Amino acid sequence: MHNQFSHNTNILVIGDLMIDHYLWGHCDRISPEAPVQVVDIEKETTVLGGAGNVVNNLKALGSNVSVMSVIGNDVVAQELIAMLNTICVEHFLVTQNERKTSKKSRLMAAKAQVVRYDHETKDAINTQSEEDLIKLFEKKVQDYDLILFSDYGKGVLTKYVCTTIIQSAMRHNKKVLVDPKGTDYSKYENAYLLTPNKKEASIATGIDIVDDDSLIEVLQLLKETGSLEISMITLSQDGIAIYKDQLIKCPTVAKEVYDVTGAGDTVLASLGFCLAQGLDIVKAIEFANLAAGVVVGKLGSATATLDEIEEYKSSLHKSSIDSHIKTQQEILKTLERLRSQNKRIVFTNGCFDILHKGHVSYLDIAKSFADILILGLNSDASVKRLKGKNRPINMQEDRAYILAALKSVDYVVIFDEDTPYELIKIVQPDILVKGGDYEGKEVVGSDIVNEVKLVQFIDGKSTTRTIEKIQKVEQCKI
Questions:
Q1: How many domains does the chain have?
Q2: With contact defined as beta carbons under 8 Å apart, do 431 and 389 qualify?
Q3: pLDDT given for residue 261 in this prediction
Q4: CA distance 102 to 112
């Protein structure tokens, strides 16, 4: 995938900058003061939101990116500027004293949003701020390959700002891509394309999208009234539809959806990145679909790197079971995504040569201790060293496939050493699980994890006994 992106891109994002603030905690009680949840806060995080999330997505893809916006003269503005400086993003910000810089705070419990509260001004920026923003654009427009509008309806992208900047961009032969807001799309006239979702497009045109015919009608109307080069509508789980000379629908590629927050930002950034690289619109949409598939599998405002997108694309060509079998390098990338979702990891390991009820019960209990169970599986060479030259009975590929098919097992990783110590160092699990026969013994990897749990095996169930039973049957036949 990387080889289709041949050069650095310089992209300018203009829009509503804000901070996404998260309070992460857990809830196990109701307040005695009122019938509301009491959330015990465990950590607090902040990320760039709004147009800032588009910026983050472009940075993750490796693009050079700058941002223009209007902010207030307040503490939130200073925090926002510091965040932009931290990620080395060039910023051209107009300060308007009476405005509140936007900050959205979300209270999260059990990985779900409990409440959101906003600190912001939603009024249109004043005339002076409009003129200052346009002057900044005129001064810098030649430096960029492409312009993105990230409109969150907070007042920065007024009709005057949009129409003036789009006209200027056209004079300089620069494409403008817009994530629109509101019902009046006339302010985006002559943009290259807009990225409304199905609901937004229906409201803007007054036409309900119920089938392909009504979809085409809306796409054509948007294209004609907005003088767009490309007409586009995002269709959630149904992918993306565009109309140039005919209808083209690119299906979605999301395998699991945890949170759609910021997915529109990812689509806008991905499209802009691809078009700035010279890719055609269909290839750009295919890439944007992949990127969106990655970010909706994460929690909160998220981004997708080229490596993550490449890994995700590769996983789509595997069976649903094969995609749960990872190399040690692949599990590192998967763990990064899981950690970003605040998932707790439990790890166990073994040969699992002939799968039986004892194994299944053991793994089911192990999974109950955390969110994700990663199983380290001894390779064939490792099993031979541990169990003897006649083992394993089943090859490592077969054992991994059967284990990955179990509901309790999230990922299987094969390791070649005699112990899983190096793999445990890679995984860094929250909990390590071993069999009850380790009672009173040292558990390999216990020095790495915070907690070790022992699970009792079902009496009479073991691979060795199964092999002995088979051998006895064979002897009787003789």
A1: 2
A2: no
A3: 56
A4: 22
**Contact between residue 119 and residue 103 where contact means Cβ atoms under 8 Å apart:** yes
Q: Smallest Cα–Cα separation from 295: which of 252, 248, 329, 250?
A: 252
Nearest CA-CA partner of 143 in 111, 169, 177, 114: 169
What pLDDT shows up at residue 466? 66
* Active-site entry in 16, 20, 265, 353: 265
Burial annotation 363-382 (CB, 10 A radius, 16+ → b, else e): beebbebbebbbbbbbbbeb
Q: Are 9 and 146 in the same domain?
A: yes
Q: pLDDT at position 384, please?
A: 94
Each residue of 25-36: pLDDT tens digit? 988 899 999 999
Residues with Cβ within 8 Å of 103's Cβ and at least 6 positions away in sequence, in order, are 18, 19, 21, 76, 118, 119, 120
Which of the 8 DSSP states describes residue 458?
P
Decide if 280 is catalytic. no
pLDDT of 258: 47
- Predicted TM-score (pTM) of this structure: 0.70
Query: Of 296, 316, 336, which marks where a domain is finished?
Result: 316
Look up the CATH number of the domain holding residue 387.
3.40.50.620
On whether the CB atoms of residues 275 and 284 are closer than 8 A, the answer is: yes
Domain that holds residue 60: 2-316
Domain boundary among 255, 286, 316: 316
Q: Is the dihedral of CA 338, 340, 343, 347 positive or negative?
A: positive
92 and 167 housed in the same domain = yes
* Interstrand relation of 112-119 and 102-109 (parallel, antiparallel or unpaired): antiparallel
Mean pLDDT by 10 residues, the chain (478 residues): 71 97 90 91 92 94 95 96 95 96 91 88 96 97 96 96 97 96 94 94 94 94 93 86 86 57 83 93 89 73 76 68 88 86 91 90 94 96 91 93 94 95 95 87 91 81 62 59
Q: In the numeric block, which tokens belong to residue 111? A: 């990985």
